[in-house]
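[job 0412] stage=fold_complex status=start
inputs:
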Amino acid sequence: MGRSGTLGEFEQAVLLAVAHLEDDAYGVTIRREIEVRTRRNAAIGALYTALERLERRGLVRSTMSDPTPTRGGRSKRHFRITPSGRAALRQSREFLTKMWAGLDLDVRAGRS
Amino acid sequence: MTPQPPRRAERLARWSLAPWERAAVLGDLAEEFHAIEATRGHRAARRWYWRQTIVSIWPNVLRRVQRDERRQKQLRHCAQNMLFGVSMLALYYLADRNDPRRASTVFGIPVVVCYASLLLGAGVQAAAALFSERVEMARSQRRVRAGLATVLLALLCLSLISPPSLAWQWLGGYALLFLVVESLRLWPRWRPDPAPAVFSVGSKGERPLTPDAQVLTSVPNKPLGMSDLLLLHPAASGTRPEIAWQRRSLVQRTFREAQSFRVCAIVKVEDRPSSAIVDLVGESGQVVRGIDVPLRIGDLGAVPPTWDDAVDADNTAAHFAEIDGRVDLQGLTPGRYAVRLTVTDGEHVSVREESIQVR
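[job 0412] stage=fold_complex status=done
writing structure:
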């Protein structure tokens, strides 16, 4: 991921998952969302590292919920995307769209 | 009996996690463990738990180090020392492979001086730890480090007094142990889960707050200690809104065993605000906690009666947004923090700060 402000692939995935889940975004659901949509299995440690980085950059915010018995009396850390997070996602999409513009990549043929 | 996650794996995960995120991550692991256990069986769930724990150790430790300024300093110090150790070995081989005694004298004496002071420091620390209230684990870690420093010193002395044929072996042993000791510095020190924070709210005002609002969720039935009425007026010129701040509580209170606190406020708006954010800002200006606060918007009728007298008579057409958010205090290091409430109405931003002291 670029430190200057662009989002890495995994960070984009995490941020998009948080945006999709809205009020129900916490570790378990974010991991499942990424797995269901991309078929990639994200380690919980890597996920929290990405979330921490996103929070430090002000792209998501977190809040702790009340403890629940199904989690052994532990609370959930809920994440929400911030306006800056939405702007970063838009910027990321625009950047990729511009780079893809006019390019018809035929991977199977091994040529463009 | 409900099956529990593997205890050793859970202990390993707990060890690798920072105290402030243990509850959330271990809770996630437990929740998913139970989900897998219900669908794919106990063995699969255990396998999944172990895999997640092992794969997550490195990211967890890295995250912990990145967020801990004290540990970052240790890391830098450790990297410098390792570089010193490796360069010393390289210089030794470059200087004179046939006369290790001379080489060990040249490079050994500064190191002896360096480690003698380290040993002294470790001894003082160990003695201080014995009389302090530190946990047993920290005390024994200091003893181990002091012991290792002694072994290093002994190896160096041996390398200086041994015949040349043996000196390089002692030096090699020294360099190896040096690297081991420095690696141990990276070992995350075990700490107990954070104790409930004690914090005081430095808010001033004129009268008690409304009884239905409760600041501290972890201290039930306590009277409200912090809440204020925020009046958000769009300026007459239309350039930006201003906040008229009316204080509602006078007493500076101290709350013990608080795990979190609630920020309650009422914002009077012409247009409906788009968001309200509560940040906990450290003394360095860095945001250590931040939450989006849900807004409940109503008309004047929805405003609690005790706040009526604070509302101007000509504001009957205004909308009121009730702000109610909770800020988690777990894992916060002691110090002074600013509670910053930021309200935006889509175009304008207004900010209000209040200070708290976490001890």
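[job 0412] summary: Chain B touches chain A at residues 16, 21, 23-32, 34-35, 52, 55-60, 62-63, 66-67, 260, 275, 277, 287, 290-292, 325-326, 328, 330 (CB under 8 Å).
[job 0412] exit 0
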